[in-house]
Specification:
The chain is of the alpha/beta class. It is built from five helices and ten strands. The chain has a single domain (about 1-210), classed as Rossmann fold (3-Layer(aba) Sandwich), CATH 3.40.50. About 25% of the residues lie in helices and about 25% in strands. Strands 1, 4, 5, 6, 7, 8, 9 and 10 form an eight-stranded mixed sheet that branches. Strands 2-3 form a two-stranded antiparallel sheet. Mean pLDDT is about 80; it is low at about 5-20 and about 190-220. Keywords: Nucleotide-binding.
Length: about 220
């Protein structure tokens, strides 16, 4: 698996075949939700640009990014919506998770309140988002494990009970950041309602079947 850093998608004319295997290109909408200061923006920045800023400013409303992941036989492009965590922006959150095929709910392992808030977001997504949405729970800031307030086993147990993907991450050190997005991409690809579905409603679409032209090249240069 390779991740193409930056906001530009892979050039389609150079991503038709990999080792003679036909490729497909998928595009999925993904939203990040969680309490203020849990590290949503830092996770997005790390994933998209490979960067981390200690003084990352709080998101106002929402921020938008794109990033491309190459799997063995397909290319997945994420449209990433990073939402604001302040309570005053909660009412507009449905505008961003509506039609999303995936969501990452982020909490801070050093703050028990953010874990409780994450559970609230999960319940809301399960009630109001797409029925087949892939939800991942991210316990962020593992670089501050000496200040841990949310135990790994507690969060993992909750994730298993609710059918969530779960990883502990660190936007600062990059631990598990790419792995989380990769796991989401693989799960989306396996979703029976997505594979081979072609263009559909709810913003879910198989953009094109790569291989219509036998152009040489590599995916995600």
């Amino acid at each position: 698996m390779r991740i193409a850093l930056g906001s530009a998608m892979a050039n389609r004319s150079e991503a038709k075949f990999l080792n003679g295997t036909e490729r497909k290109f998928y595009q999925f909408k993904l939203v990040l939700l969680g309490e203020y200061s849990a590290g949503k923006s830092s996770l997005a920045l790390r994933f998209v640009k490979g960067q981390f800023h200690d003084d990352e400013e709080s998101t106002i409303g929402a921020a938008f990014f794109t990033q491309t992941i190459c799997l063995d036989d397909s290319t997945v492009r994420f449209q990433v919506w990073d939402t604001a965590g302040q309570e005053k922006y909660h009412s507009v959150a449905p505008l961003y998770y509506r039609g999303a095929q995936a969501a990452i709910v982020v909490y801070d392992i050093t703050n028990q309140d953010t874990f409780g808030r994450a559970k609230t977001w999960v319940k809301e997504l399960q009630r109001l988002a797409l029925p087949n949405i892939v939800i991942a729970l991210a316990g962020n800031k593992t670089d501050l494990a000496n200040k841990r307030m949310v135990e790994h086993d507690e969060a993992q147990g909750y994730a298993e009970e609710n059918g969530l993907l779960f990883m502990e991450t660190s936007a600062k050190t990059a631990i598990n950041v790419n792995n989380m997005f990769l796991a989401i991409a693989k799960k989306l690809q396996k979703n029976e309602q997505v594979i081979g579905a072609g263009t559909t409603g709810n913003d879910r679409r198989l953009v094109e079947s790569e291989g219509q032209q036998k152009a040489p090249g590599k995916c995600c240069k």
